[in-house]
Amino acid sequence: MIHLENIQRRYVSDEVETTALADIDLHVEAGEFVAIMGPSGCGKSTLLNTLGTVDRPTGGKYLFDDRDLAALDEKALAQFRGATLGFVFQSFNLIDELTIEENVALGLAYRKDDAGKGIGDRRARVAAAMDKVGIAHRARHYPHQLSGGQQQRAAIARAIVGAPKLILADEPTGNLDTANGEQVMNILAGLNNEGATIIMVTHSPSHADMAKRRIDMLDGRIVASAARAL
Ligand SMILES: Nc1ncnc2c1ncn2[C@@H]1O[C@H](COP(=O)(O)OP(=O)(O)OP(=O)(O)O)[C@@H](O)[C@H]1O
Ligand SMILES: [Mg+2]
Question: Which atom in ligand 1 lies closest to the alpha carbon of residue 39?
Answer without folding.
Answer: 25
